Predict the structure.
Amino acid sequence: MTVIAVDGPAASGKGTLARKLAAHFGYDYLDTGKLYRATGLAVLNAGKDPSDETAAVEAANSIDPARLDDPALSGDDAAAAASKVAAIGAVRAALKDFQIAFAARRPGAVLDGRDIGTVICPDAPAKLFVTASVEVRAERRHKELLSRGEDSIYARVLQELRERDERDTNRADAPLRPADDAQVLDTSAMSIDEAFAEALKIVEGRLA
């Protein structure tokens, strides 16, 4: 089996690149962020606070993989809740086994998230850390929301991303950071096609 780990902050382009890499190599793909979004949304739907450890762990232990395509997981509420439940160590532990089992799929798997290369698949032969300036990421997220017909204010999106980056990089358990052996790919000035070409070159070099 072969694992390609793709990490990075929100709206960096890591999900798009991970999906394209999976299609190119014929591997299974998992957006691990959806596990946390599903957990956070389940807590919200139960009328509870995503920072409530008991409620969050209960939701994490009840994840239904069939519901990971729920359109509601793409919303801002799910994103904000995901960042909060992801800061809870017991939630990360509950979801870790699911991710490790997925990574063992043959002929290979591509997982994107925030701790794939550092925690979930530390032995992955190919690791990418995809990033971009927070201003560029906010603009991408803002345009994505508008394209879906949702209300969006750039300044608010920018502030939310900054707050999310702060939580993700400073949490005690599995903070967002590049693995020591990951290749950092800054997509700030790249188109999707340019970023994919560079990502593919890096991954093929690692797998050769």
Remarks:
- The chain has nine helices and five strands.
- The first strand starts at residue 2 and ends at 7.
